[in-house]
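Bug #77: duplicate submission created two jobs. Keeping one. Sequence:
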Amino acid sequence: MRLATVRTDDGTTRLYGGGSDGFFDLVEAAESRSMGGLARVTDVGSFLRAGPAADADARELMRDAGHWPATPLEGLRLAPPVTLPRSIVCVGRNYLEHVREGNSPVPEFPILFSKFPNTLVGHDEPVVRHAITSELDYEGELALIIGRQARRVLKDEALAFVAGYTVLNDISARDLQLGDVQWIRGKSLDTFCPLGPVFVSADEVEDPGRLQIETRVNGELRQNAPCSDMIFDIPTLLAFISEAITLEPGDLVATGTPSGTAFGMDPRRYLEPGDSVEVRITDLGTLRSPIVGPEDGR
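Kept job's structure:
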């Protein structure tokens, strides 16, 4: 199942479902059939919190997708699939070659940090290079979207708590990240977490380790690695995180980035206004982010 959160002209968001033939308004379709499971759903996060009834209604409607007019994905204004997660938990230095390009020691356990909801933007929405940074970097990542409460989960049960996957770009201000005592400011400026374009349910991803991450800047390939190159795999990450932090439906877990960041290049080639970054993950789609200057930002 593929779901998109769409921005409307009145400033709200709507949940759409679909595939290669286009996407249609799931809530409107549910109303036409007097289905109640999607009544208060506005995005993927609220869809997951609505529970089994919402899932059953959405899957029934998707089986009859041809009954409603569909719009190609590129014709929709996409919000991040989850617009207001309770938590965005990120993992640093989780690919060996990325550790090496930063001349850092190989971690003995996952390195966690967080972003905040103010960072979230959708596909094709601008990322602002704020005036307080001159070292804007990209990090293409696989993101997990949690489907049910996860607390002290076991590794062999961890994947059952993942509702689905999407593409994330962990935008980073390297000068702030490395100049501060901790990473929060360098990782959490407004617009620093592009997410999307869509949510792909876990039952459509047979093995997340076989997914391939590619990041391009202005068409130039910068990052290219399989998710199997993670130092700590998804079950290990979820067990480690949930041992200390309870994850709720709609929460996000960013699983780390491979090598090829601007910080790891010689000379370093940071993002500038006018650049375009595309992060593609096999079967999940391509997340595109135009870079703008502070005077152009929202």
